[in-house]
Amino acid sequence: MQLKHIKLSGFKSFVDPTKISFPTNMVGVVGPNGCGKSNVIDAIRWVLGELSAKNLRGESMVDVIFNGSEKRKASGQCSIELLFDNSSAKIGGEYASYNEVSIKRVMTRDAQSDYFINNSKCRRKDVQDIFLGTGLGPSSYAIIEQGMVSKLVSAKPDELRTHIEEAAGVSKYRERRRETESRIKRTKENLSRVKDIRDEIGRLIKRLENQAKAAEKYKKLNDEKSQIELDTAILFSLEAKNNRDNLQKKLDSLNRDLKIKNAESETIQSQIDQFRTENESVLSEYESAQKNFYSIGAEIAKREANLQNINKTENETKFKLEKTKENLEKAKETEKNFDELSPSEQAIHILNEIIATLKKYSIQNDSILDKANKLKVLLAEILNIASAQSKTLTEEYQSRQEDLSKEIFEAEKLKSSIEEEMQTYVEESSQAESVLISLRQKQSKFNEDLRNLENNKSIVELDSRSISEKITNIRLDLKTYEINLENSNKKIKSAGIDIEKIDFTKYEDLSINELEDKLADIETKIIRLGAINLAAPDEIEEESKRKEELDKQYDDLIEALDKLNGAIKKIDNETKTIFKDSFDAVNIKLKEVFPKLFGGGLAELNLTDDDPLHAGVILMARPPGKKNSSISQLSGGEKALTALALVFAIFDLNPAPFCLLDEVDAPLDDLNTLRFINMVEEMSKTVQFIFITHNKVSMERSDYLMGVTMQEAGVSRMVSVDVNKALELAES
Question: Hey, is 606 helix, strand or coil?
Fold first, then answer.
């Protein structure tokens, strides 16, 4: 089984869809530090079901998705697909017939991860099951990354054991043992559950037996109860017939009384209707008189309101007249003043004296004289205007006084007219009130007579209702007796007894009360029995069959548990044998490979316990010329070679489809690198090697070189070189 190619998309630095082919068994991956070489190995580990972000050099699992760069946006998901050549049918089971098998894993940013085998969705477990025993399982020894060399060398005994178990194919037995243990657990749970159910059914059968005894007692009491109920029914039938006839007589008498009362009620109602008709006529007259009375009152109110408005207006007019008289007197006084020497005239006289004085003393000032003469003319004009206005105002006040006096006269005249109208309406109102009082008295008499008639009717109706209630009660009693009679007859007929042939004489000494007492006693006994399960006998039979089936299941589970425990012992024995044989084979091969890589020395594996099933594994190594007491005392290069020697020894036992090496030759010098690459070249005949390296010797010995570049920051790209073809071209 060979890895043909990998398809990457959105995984770490491989953001673009990238196909990486592996055409030979010695493929070298080269490139500068930080370009994404190790991401190729991480991709393979991730597809095989790795769940630890730490093992993928991340903090969380979503870190495997391209997180963006300066020029690129982050990807929403990543996808990796591995294509295997399965022409050798090393992948068995349902995929053995497939020449190619693809394993795919897709994950989104919400950490949702999906697995596919040949494009069919599957579980992670299905992917891991394919590679169980191939060296590519959870404890794979075929993927050696940076730092794992020292971890492998300094691994704890239990951890080192898992690598040998993976090579030995013990992981399959471990899985079978785990599944068997799970089945044992489930079987024990089922066994416990069956035992509990069986015990519960046993207890249930005992309860059902007690219930069956109670059911038998119930049947006897129920038979007695049925006979008493039959006797009671016959007595009820006899009494019901007699009571029904008596009640029917009472009912007929009450119906006659009811007819008489109904006739009285109808007579009174006729009188009431007549009174109401007459009363409606009186009421109509009363309403008309009342409407007339209210209409006259409204007219009186309207006239009173008019008088109030006229009085108010007259008072306001008289007030205005007094003010006008006062203003007239003032205007006349002003006019009188103008007839005498007014202050303006005095001012003109003074101005004349001033002008004469100026002329007398020959004061030559034309400006002053001119202004004085202008002032004299202006004062004369003002005097003439004021005199004219005073005369006009006096005339206006005289005219206003005459108009107001005329308004007062007209108001007095209107008041007299309204007062005469009011007197007429008051007389009409008195007459209307007398009519209204007369009609009210007449209506009161009608109402009194009507109340007496309605009271008489109420008494008659009350008697009628009393009789009706009695009739209703008798009918209900009659219906009850008829129902009792019908039920009693049904019970009698259901017992197969002809009612017409019953000899009632033998029931003369019985009473219903006595029978009811007996019935109550039997019902008390039935109640004391509690809940009765009449189906108890059938249920006992059913539950007994069920218990037999559970007993059989219990025995089958005991047998299955014995077989599963035997299978565990068999698996343990096979595991012990296979592990011991594999351990010895790896140890022999390690002793052979170690000297080849070191040019001498010794390395071996030891068990921590005599029991191969549970013992851990310890790695001992002594390079040539050294006596080391511990692996930790080895140098970095020695640890690397020791780890590689162990891996190559394991590969000899169970070659994995491919081996991934991540810069394991970094701590080696040229000589040790040459030894290492020689062994890789030898093993590549059966194993596909994909190794990341910076070592020139390793590069030169590779059949196919694959370069990883990062021309764009954060984005990895692949460049492939066929070394053999390149050498052929160079030689030609």
Answer: strand
What mean pLDDT value characterizes the chain? Answer: 78
3 state DSSP class of 656: coil
Q: Is residue 373 part of a domain?
A: yes
Looking at residue 114, its pLDDT comes to 94
pLDDT at position 341 is 47
Residue 648 forms part of a structural domain: no
Long-range contacts of 303-311 (CB under 8 A, 24+ apart): 303/418, 303/421, 303/422, 303/425, 304/422, 306/418, 307/415, 307/418, 307/419, 307/422, 310/411, 310/414, 310/415, 310/418, 311/415
d(CA 293, CA 299): 10
SS3 labels along 125-163: HHHHHHCCCCCCCCCCCCEECCCHHHHHHCCCHHHHHHH
Question: Per residue, what are the HEC states of 352-393?
Answer: HHHHHHHHHCCCCCHHHHHHHHHHHHHHHHHHHHHHHHHHHH
Q: What is the DSSP letter of 14?
A: B
Strand order across the beta sheet in which 704-712 lies: 143-144, 658-662, 688-692, 26-30, 704-712, 715-722
Region of 498 (left: φ > 0; alpha: ψ -120 to 50; beta: rest) is beta
Q: What is the CATH number of the domain that holds 329?
A: 1.10.287.2610
For 355-390, the pLDDT digits (tens) are 666 665 555 556 666 766 676 667 666 656 655 555
Q: For residue 99, give the nearest of 107, 90, 110, 109 by alpha carbon.
A: 90
- Mutual angle of helices 536-598 and 636-653, in 10-degree steps: 120
- C-alpha atoms less than 13 angstroms from C-alpha of 136 in its C-beta half-sphere: 27
Chain centroid to CA 233: how far?
63
For the chain, report the end-to-end CA distance as a whole number of angstroms: 35
In a domain, 552, yes or no: no
Residue 486: how many CB atoms within 10 A of its CB?
12
Number of domains, the chain: 1
The pair phi, psi for residue 706, each rounded to 5°, is -125, 115
Q: Is 281 helix (H, G, I), strand (E, B) or coil?
A: helix
Q: Domain range spanning residue 335?
A: 240-454
Cα–Cα distance between 557 and 559 in angstroms, integer? Answer: 5
